[in-house]
Amino acid sequence: MPRRLVVVGGGAAGMSAASAARRIDPELGIVVLEAGGYVSYGVCGLPYYLSGVVEHAEELLAHPASWFVEHRRLDLRLHARAVALDPDRRVVRYVQDGAQHDLSYTALVVAAGGAPTVPELPGPPRPTFTIRTLEDAIALRSLLDAGTVRSALVVGAGYIGLEMAEALHARGCAVTVVERLPRVLTTLDAEVAARVEDHVREHVELRLGVGSEPLPAADVVVLATGVVPTGGIAADAGATTGPRGALLVDDRMRTSLPGVWAAGDCIAPWHRVLGAPAFVPLGPAANKTGRVAGTVAAGGDATFDGVVGTAVVKVFDLEVAHTGLTHEQAGAAGLAAVATDVVGRSRAKYYPGATPLHVRLVHEAGGRLLGAQLVGREGAAKRIDVTATALHAGLTVTDLAALDLSYAPPYAPVYDPLILAAQAARRKLVAAV
Amino acid sequence: MPRRLVVVGGGAAGMSAASAARRIDPELGIVVLEAGGYVSYGVCGLPYYLSGVVEHAEELLAHPASWFVEHRRLDLRLHARAVALDPDRRVVRYVQDGAQHDLSYTALVVAAGGAPTVPELPGPPRPTFTIRTLEDAIALRSLLDAGTVRSALVVGAGYIGLEMAEALHARGCAVTVVERLPRVLTTLDAEVAARVEDHVREHVELRLGVGSEPLPAADVVVLATGVVPTGGIAADAGATTGPRGALLVDDRMRTSLPGVWAAGDCIAPWHRVLGAPAFVPLGPAANKTGRVAGTVAAGGDATFDGVVGTAVVKVFDLEVAHTGLTHEQAGAAGLAAVATDVVGRSRAKYYPGATPLHVRLVHEAGGRLLGAQLVGREGAAKRIDVTATALHAGLTVTDLAALDLSYAPPYAPVYDPLILAAQAARRKLVAAV
């Protein structure tokens, strides 16, 4: 039998894996099984297609499917859903057009992504959407373009829920966001999340701590209650799983099954700050782990050095960014953590457009940085990367205070908000000695 | 005699020193000698006052002079120019209102700043300005406000020259920039500077490599040919100096003279990448070294961990940022350096407003990062800080490629331009093995 790599999933991770494998081995047979009708689009772009900021769905694709067939010589099978795996015989079973097929492989990359959780909602049935696939987004946008949707209910106030609230608001809907928890964005500490809540309420209705009471009426419902990893075919075949049932992999994306690699939102990559695997399904790691899995599965070598949990989300006019652990997460992990809050400015105080920038640093009593949260109208998105870099390098808040960061009045005050926060954190260390 | 700290210079460094000393010692007598009529303003704001972006000169002051007298209990002597120093007797001589005064001290902080170089210009005399003090800026702005200035000549195409060109252009002047060297911004490599030159030429006339030919006629001339450190009173008294005659200090800002500290633009702080002192007169280090000098001179303890040479400048619609060493500087320092260039995008390709972002990384053949240069319409200013942090921590381009940087379509592509550049740099390392 000729060597054959099968990739399950044609999203960012799967197509990165397939492309990387092709670069390593020009002769390898590469089959991609994609359950939907599109490949290589970023899930992160869907809210912007819905809002109309991005006009055509095709703009979200890295390349059209035909490009991968022509330029990467992939055997791309769309509407092909992998349903079972026999790791001993090295056969994957998939369903396409209602028929079952068995496909043998020499190497398998599972990049099946994540699936939205679908809670049961009380009340009468209404047009209900999850926004995980391009098909989901196209269906909802068609409805919105028809002009009959006046009100929308978003269930869940995580980052996808808030992005959807903004998108639907931009389309002229009266939007209500309901959330079971008493706060938005569990990736932030509650005190920081409160700033985001105040801002969200300037634009849409936000109901927190919603229990079993009837949900408000709406022309359309969008579910954004979280994502679960969908590495089920590997897990069912005995692959070791970790947090939230995500597949566990080593730094070369090998699962516990021989000949099976995994990448993207269905794995729990190494979290460098936690020192443990964590389920943090985000785009950059999906792309990078896909590339590593494809490279190694095709006979090359590459490693993935883990994540620190960096993310940013646009919430109406706010940039909301975080990395590492929140104070709550650090406590849950048994770390004696300290939180330091500072409100700096995005630019020199005399420069037009300067706006407040809230910085929270989370650090150990001894000084090691554990995480950061930034919220402001500008300057949060890329500033968080300084703290992500500091986390990667294991720096302390004292190191952070000593950084030589860029300054010019249009872009930062002479003491950058990050430096102010690090100085305040450092004073706590000195005081504790 | 009661203990007395004398601070020479009321700029960012001097006022930081005086304020820090007051925090350490509430009883200390603190005298500040300032040659001009204003204290605690950032030189970096002057172009924005000239352009009118900042309306009133007072907005540039951190606080009015009276605030420091009242809240910091400083003996603030304006129009008082220090002219000589006797370190053995611990006496500083200064001139105020034409009269000479001798003032004894127990500790002295020299924070005299820098002075613009004034080249002799060929041709007829014209109203000529340097822009180093608030008085300079007020004088030129008065002339501009009078409405009679139609054309301006800027001599020097370093960052101050380009900021001045933008400011004068914003005031409606026809601006010509002349530069002796064949390129702008020696803080960039020539290939990167060329992108800035193309952009500058969209707005004003730029003449590079200008020799002894007659300069174009203009209603006003602005000199921006560089700054020299003005620590002369300490140097004349025997203090050790380094690059460009700047004062040498240890990590507590002690000069070689007993009882004399120095800070700000008149010193050459430790450059962490060069592993040597360097004259890099910039605002953040001025503030930080001032604070350290004042703290230590007043009996406290603090250290300054050096600079990596990070800076950013707005040049019309471009953000131009750099840190560490250029390829040219690395070569001059005897390092076998490699430059890697990548053009990424500031946002996801499908998100409106995405613009090209040019990244140059400079690194050793073995991978250690030595510097970075970023040029683009957005996203350069704070992205440079990731590389500044990496330099501080001694990271390699392989480390840089592994960073977990933030991603959301409005703020970055899924592969941040910095990651793309680091990946490209890493491929050169692998290729070299």
Quaternary structure of the protein:
homodimer
Number of helices of chain A: 12
What is the overall pLDDT average of chain A? 96
What is the largest interface, and how many residues per chain? A-B, 64 and 64 residues
Determine the fraction of residues in helical runs of chain A and give it as a percent range: 25-40%
List keywords for this structure.
homodimer, 433 residues, alpha/beta, 5-stranded parallel β-sheet, globular
Description:
The structure is a homodimer of 433-residue chains. Chain A has 433 residues and is an alpha/beta fold. Helices cover 27% and strands 25% of the residues of chain A. Chain A is built from twelve helices and 22 strands. Chain A has helices at residues 12-24, 46-51, 65-71, 134-145, 159-170, 190-201, 232-236, 283-297, 327-332, 384-393, 397-401, 417-432, and strands spanning 4-8, 29-33, 75-77, 80-86, 91-96, 99-104, 107-110, 114-116, 128-130, 151-155, 174-178, 205-207, 220-223, 227-229, 260-262, 270-271, 276-277, 311-315, 318-324, 337-345, 356-364, 369-376. A five-stranded parallel β-sheet of chain A has the order 3-2-1-7-15. Chain A has a five-stranded parallel β-sheet with strand order 9-13-10-11-12. In chain A, α1 links the parallel β1 (4-8) and β2. In chain A, α1 runs parallel beside α8. Chain A starts with a strand and ends with a helix. The interface between A and B is large, with 64 and 64 residues.
